[in-house]
Design brief:
By secondary structure, this protein is mostly beta strands. About 5% of the residues lie in helices and about 40% in strands. The protein contains 3 helices and 12 strands; from the N terminus they run E-E-H-E-E-E-H-E-H-E-E-E-E-E-E.
């Protein structure tokens, strides 16, 4: 099996566009076309701002207004003015095109698309595999790694285990506790 390689760096100043999911339409709310949205972005104020255009498999949707209600984001889209229209949007993924070079404001944070495909190595320098997905759970995030021996392992994305993220160099560096990667050794 081939060793994973570092993600390619775009030429200096070149934009690298990618489509990312920022939300998923949930249930209709009320009778005037509002929908709840399952947010999948750290920047909901930016992504769901008035006038923002979101791509979907049904064509673009323009945000008329968005507001927080009982811990949920409610959004009203242009042209969706009744409950029937809102119900037809249920399950639709809301996407935006982003520049792959764009970084979050916090230097300790990363967008999922920046991590997927990165090599994962141990603190000792052994190649573990390739990061295939960032799983967002309610308690913490987890990275899914396809190992060089063909297994898929889940690693908590916490600083005690993921000690370094170096997208221009070594990739994602992990210091897994005994038994995490090979559960039969933990007994």
């Amino acid at each position: 099996m081939a060793s994973p390689s570092a993600p390619e760096s775009p030429p200096s100043g070149a934009a690298q566009p990618a489509t990312v999911v920022v939300g998923r339409v949930g249930r209709a709310h009320g009778v005037r076309g509002d929908v709840s949205v399952e947010v999948r972005t750290d920047q909901p104020d930016r992504r769901f701002a008035e006038g923002a255009v979101l791509d979907t498999d049904r064509g673009p949707l323009t945000v008329v207004r968005a507001r927080e209600h009982s811990g949920r984001l409610l959004v009203h889209f242009e042209g969706v003015d009744d409950r029937s229209g809102a119900e037809q949007l249920r399950g639709v993924l809301l996407e935006v095109t982003v520049d792959l070079c764009e970084r979050p404001d916090d230097s300790e944070e990363y967008y999922d698309h920046q991590l997927v495909g990165a090599p994962v190595v141990t603190v000792g320098g052994d190649v573990l595999g390739v990061l295939t997905e960032v799983v967002h759970l309610s308690g913490q995030d987890i990275i899914s790694v396809h190992t060089t021996d063909g297994r898929d392992v889940l690693i908590p994305f916490v600083s005690a285990i993921v000690t370094e993220v170096d997208l221009q160099g070594r990739g994602v560096v992990v210091d897994p506790p005994l038994g995490l990667l090979q559960p039969d050794l933990g007994d």
